[in-house]
Amino acid sequence: MSSMIKKVEQVAGKVEAAAEGLFHHHAPAVASGGDGGGSGGAGPQPAAGTMHAERHPTFSPVLADPSVSVDDLLDSTFASRYTSVPMSKTTLPEHGAPAGVVYQLITDLRKLDTTPALNLASFVTTWMEPEAEKLIQESLNVNYVDTDEYPSSTEIHNRCLAMLAKLWHSPAVAGEGPADPVGTACIGSSEAIMLGALGLKKRWEAWRTKQGKDASRPNLVMGAQVHVCWQKFCRYFSVEERYVPVEEGRYVSSPELMKELIDENTIGIGAVFGSTYNGEFEDVSALDALCTELNEANGWNLGIHVDGASGAFYAPFMYPDLVWDFRLDNVVSINASGHKYGLVYPGLGWVMWRDADNLPEALVFWENYLGTLERSITLNFSKPATNIIAQYYQFLRLGFSGYRKIFTNLDIIRKRLTAALERTGHFEILSKPVGVPVVAFRFKTVQGADGTAHHRLYDEFALADRLRMRGWVLPAYTMPDNAKHIKLMRITIREDFSLSMTDMLVKDIEDALVYLDNHFTFNKEQMQQLAHAAYGSRRLSRFDTSIYSSARDATKKELDPSTRFLYTPHTVTFLALGLLALIYFSRVAAPDRRPADAAAGAELAYSNAKTGIWAMVLVFLGYSVVQGPSTCMVRPHPALWRLVHGIMVVYLLFMTYLLFQTVDDSRQFLRHLYPELGVELPERHYGADCRLWIPGEGLNKKVLQDTLWDEFVVAHTVGWFAKACIIRNQPMLWTISVAFELCEKTFQHWLPNFNECWWDSWVLDVLVCNAIGIYTGMWTVRYFRSKQYNWSGISQQPSLIAKAKRGLLQFTPYSWDNFEWGVFSSPKRLVHCILIVFIFLLFEINHFFLKAVLWVPPTNPLNTYRLLIICLFALPGIKEYYEFIESDSFNIFTKLGTFAWLAMAIAFVETLVVVKFSHGLFLQPWPRSVLLAWGTAAAAFAVPFAIWCWRFYVANPRRAAQQGPAAAAKARRSGTQRGKAE
């Protein structure tokens, strides 16, 4: 038995020695005079059956550097049997490793990658025929730019260009003669777009120089839905970006909006022919007509580059009658991605110019590095010939009919998938019937029991996460700026996406919806709403501070070394400085001496009381700046809006105090602020003389001069400009404008200020001053909303002028939100919008009545302060109110924002003060005509509104069915009873 054990031990020793020699073999000693296997000497060769230790040394089982973390090392399941310790992930190893080991390591690393066929986010081709892959394999080592060494690659490239030029109707290859296309292959459409846009820029610069005009301020006009490479081009090559914003229901640019952004410095138009967001085609034909119109009217040289990354390969086969290419006179260049619907592996792009005249000479370079004089018009130099050869294979293999057959199949799948998603009842389709084969969709809003629209407790991102668990990759994303509130998903249909896969995907989507409908999943935005409802404005604990993390994202982006001090809290410092100020101004250290004279003592007591009240107000405002609740506003600094919040509270308390005083006491109280107050005002009658023409004298110049040069003409215009920037909705603005003039007619028997001439009210006020303010305000909103903002800190600006400009821009909004009020989307929404109009009218009317009852002349600063405060708190107030009516899916949690609540409270308390102080001042009875007019208007509104509410909430069983079983049953019972009654 012992001999058996010895034999086993001997065998084990031999195996261990063999393993040591195989896996831990060190290079043998080199014979003298040799160099260890170099070309100059014949060193000893490794024994048969052993690995080449010189090329593939193994590693010591002991870590050479104990400071290296295990997390920084490579590990593998199966390759570990050949290595003693893992290799470094980020440091180039000193020695190599066996090929099989490295192959296994990299294979392990890639195992969790998505299956390309299930990646429905990408437009990129993921399958080609074996013959195409064989051609690619055989040409992996071919550098396309070596035209002298690989002339066949150049010939194949030129043949592909000729085919594309004829496909896109280039005049350079018109007819049956030899083709002379002007274009090149690129690494992808990003490079192709760079070249096309550079062509527009150089073309514009040459035209401007020829006319002797400045060419230093180029701009490029395009839709906000463009690919990020357009933004890169503008930044890389110093071109101003001008974006046509998208909006609800319109996800591409329009010629009308684009026209507003174009000027003589516009190098051209970027037309997106196949949006990444929803696959939609822009109307290139309409943009061409716009270019023709502007060129003829101004003598310009506008051109269009068509970004056909996906659409330029798809449209010629599916929509041959759609005119978008070089058949349009102003289309200068087109790009397409061969690796998308050219059906070639990545990366391959193509760019084509109309003809040689439209390719600026500044983009053409000649070189002979490789032995032959060659032309180069690409951004990069070396590139593989593999995909160019693969593109030529696809052209010959498929032909026109083959591409059309494949794309027709994709369209059939698109329609099938669209119908299946619509049948679920959960989705709204955002992609268009005419476009690239993409299905873009978003969740429908849920109808509540009261008929209002509610958001779901989960969103598109939650659905994408659930589908990822099944292997599907569907991107969830948001629309561009100005429509970022729109979340959507996209399914890109490629050749390897079959009908059976479509059915499997729909089944997995339905299963995911069932799960999400029965489980709570809250995103970050919803968690913020829940936290705001649960905790209000209190500071959260360390367990829940992450809830508010994104609320400070915008502020964090403002931080840079030069402004960090302004954005970091200084609460203790502020407290210390405040206490020092109180100690100094209150004379704490001084003895309390009262004057012997009674009059002087009374005067001192009055002065101390007044100073104490002001100090109390300032302490509260200081507290508001440091500890007040933050809002949605961050410009120019969040502290400013906390100060505005504090001023609102002080003003509300002030009006509440006046509410409990008599009118005489209130007037005397205001004299403590301004001693000149307390005197009854002479009211101005604007309608005393309404004659524009006096017989025998001619034009009534005095009336016109007094009216047109009145200070309130400018105030009207500026005020309505501010209202337009706040409300951002023309119908609501015009409603307020007309309604206020009607209110003036209603109260003119009480306030002589309201007694105006008809032409003063309706022509000068409404059609001139108000119209100018509204249209300039809306233009300003559209202008700033059309720009995409990427803010950077002041210290990051390259020059002193740029720093000063960035400092001024700090006083502009961080971003411009788009308010989609949807006035007539439901009765409840109409009531919300009427309430906004009512609040604005209250503030307008209260302004005049408060002046009248408190005897405050128009020139007194109190009027200016009040208007400024209202304008400041209206900005965040209207945003908070909009978010309140938009996010009422959280009925049990949502509450009105702080600014909106305070604004309503101030409006109503002001009204109470006016009503109380008006007793005995306005004795004239209401004219019967006014009562009759308002009664008729109320009835004319109430009756249709009641009918609408009844139909919206009661009479429609289908709508009621969407609101819930109880509502549906009620509607059915109501319908049955109506049938019996009939």
Automatic annotation (TrEMBL):
<keyword id="KW-0210">Decarboxylase</keyword>
<protein>
    <recommendedName>
        <fullName>Multifunctional fusion protein</fullName>
        <ecNumber>2.7.8.8</ecNumber>
        <ecNumber>4.1.1.15</ecNumber>
    </recommendedName>
</protein>
<dbReference type="GO" id="GO:0030170">
    <property type="term" value="F:pyridoxal phosphate binding"/>
</dbReference>
<dbReference type="GO" id="GO:0005789">
    <property type="term" value="C:endoplasmic reticulum membrane"/>
</dbReference>
<dbReference type="InterPro" id="IPR004277">
    <property type="entry name" value="PSS"/>
</dbReference>
<feature type="transmembrane region" description="Helical">
    <location>
        <begin position="830"/>
        <end position="850"/>
    </location>
</feature>
<dbReference type="GO" id="GO:0003882">
    <property type="term" value="F:CDP-diacylglycerol-serine O-phosphatidyltransferase activity"/>
</dbReference>
<comment type="similarity">
    <text>Belongs to the CDP-alcohol phosphatidyltransferase class-I family.</text>
</comment>
<keyword id="KW-0808">Transferase</keyword>
<comment type="similarity">
    <text>Belongs to the group II decarboxylase family.</text>
</comment>
<dbReference type="GO" id="GO:0005829">
    <property type="term" value="C:cytosol"/>
</dbReference>
<feature type="region of interest" description="Disordered">
    <location>
        <begin position="27"/>
        <end position="53"/>
    </location>
</feature>
<feature type="transmembrane region" description="Helical">
    <location>
        <begin position="862"/>
        <end position="878"/>
    </location>
</feature>
<comment type="function">
    <text>Catalyzes a base-exchange reaction in which the polar head group of phosphatidylethanolamine (PE) is replaced by L-serine.</text>
</comment>
<dbReference type="GO" id="GO:0006646">
    <property type="term" value="P:phosphatidylethanolamine biosynthetic process"/>
</dbReference>
<feature type="transmembrane region" description="Helical">
    <location>
        <begin position="640"/>
        <end position="660"/>
    </location>
</feature>
<dbReference type="GO" id="GO:0106245">
    <property type="term" value="F:L-serine-phosphatidylethanolamine phosphatidyltransferase activity"/>
</dbReference>
<feature type="transmembrane region" description="Helical">
    <location>
        <begin position="899"/>
        <end position="919"/>
    </location>
</feature>
<keyword id="KW-0443">Lipid metabolism</keyword>
<dbReference type="InterPro" id="IPR002129">
    <property type="entry name" value="PyrdxlP-dep_de-COase"/>
</dbReference>
<keyword id="KW-0256">Endoplasmic reticulum</keyword>
<feature type="modified residue" description="N6-(pyridoxal phosphate)lysine">
    <location>
        <position position="340"/>
    </location>
</feature>
<comment type="pathway">
    <text>Phospholipid metabolism; phosphatidylethanolamine biosynthesis; phosphatidylethanolamine from CDP-diacylglycerol: step 1/2.</text>
</comment>
<keyword id="KW-0444">Lipid biosynthesis</keyword>
<keyword id="KW-0594">Phospholipid biosynthesis</keyword>
<keyword id="KW-0663">Pyridoxal phosphate</keyword>
<keyword id="KW-0812">Transmembrane</keyword>
<dbReference type="InterPro" id="IPR015421">
    <property type="entry name" value="PyrdxlP-dep_Trfase_major"/>
</dbReference>
<keyword id="KW-0456">Lyase</keyword>
<feature type="transmembrane region" description="Helical">
    <location>
        <begin position="611"/>
        <end position="628"/>
    </location>
</feature>
<keyword id="KW-0472">Membrane</keyword>
<dbReference type="Pfam" id="PF00282">
    <property type="entry name" value="Pyridoxal_deC"/>
</dbReference>
<dbReference type="GO" id="GO:0006659">
    <property type="term" value="P:phosphatidylserine biosynthetic process"/>
</dbReference>
<dbReference type="InterPro" id="IPR010107">
    <property type="entry name" value="Glutamate_decarboxylase"/>
</dbReference>
<dbReference type="GO" id="GO:0006538">
    <property type="term" value="P:L-glutamate catabolic process"/>
</dbReference>
<feature type="compositionally biased region" description="Gly residues">
    <location>
        <begin position="33"/>
        <end position="43"/>
    </location>
</feature>
<feature type="transmembrane region" description="Helical">
    <location>
        <begin position="565"/>
        <end position="585"/>
    </location>
</feature>
<dbReference type="InterPro" id="IPR015424">
    <property type="entry name" value="PyrdxlP-dep_Trfase"/>
</dbReference>
<keyword id="KW-1208">Phospholipid metabolism</keyword>
<dbReference type="GO" id="GO:0004351">
    <property type="term" value="F:glutamate decarboxylase activity"/>
</dbReference>
<feature type="transmembrane region" description="Helical">
    <location>
        <begin position="931"/>
        <end position="953"/>
    </location>
</feature>
<dbReference type="Pfam" id="PF03034">
    <property type="entry name" value="PSS"/>
</dbReference>
